[in-house]
Design a protein that fits this description.
Layout (H helix, E strand, L loop, with lengths): L2 H11 L6 E6 L7 E7 L4 E7 L4 E4 L11 E2 L2 H11 L6 H4 L11 H7 L4 H5 L5
Antiparallel strand pairs: 1-2, 2-3, 3-4, 4-5
Length: about 130
């Protein structure tokens, strides 16, 4: 996902959910995803989008930490689907046991040994 497209999507949905956006965190080499904080009066979370266009939400995000706690957000998920036809992955899907996808390298999988789909799709692999 290009940063400019990620920003366009975020700036498109923010007014729809009454949210303000934080700084877009763009990786230099790792991790393999973009992140941005989105805040409303009712919640604060980070939206993630991987280099393979996988979308998810996490409670908090520290670029130096390799730990993500995935969450669901029905409001933003529905807006992403309705406006941009983007399907966000649920925490249940991301916490399923790992299964390789076509976009993943076998050498990375053997070396990093992800346990869940979330670890495989949103990672700090170099």
């Amino acid at each position: 996902m290009e940063v400019s497209i990620f920003k366009k999507v975020l700036y498109g949905i923010a007014p729809e959910v009454g949210a303000s956006l934080g700084k877009v965190i763009s990786p230099e080499v790792i991790p393999n995803f973009l992140a941005c904080q989105i805040e409303t009066r009712k919640f604060s979370l980070y939206i993630l989008c991987s280099e393979n266009n996988d979308w998810a939400f996490v409670e908090d995000y520290d670029p130096e930490s390799c730990e993500l706690i995935f969450i669901n957000n029905e409001l933003i998920s529905s807006k992403l689907k309705d406006i941009y036809n983007i399907k966000t992955l649920t925490k249940e899907e991301l916490n399923l046991p790992f299964k390789a996808t076509n976009s993943m390298l076998e050498s990375d999988i053997k070396y990093w040994r992800p346990k869940t789909m979330g670890e495989g799709l949103f990672n700090w692999w170099d």
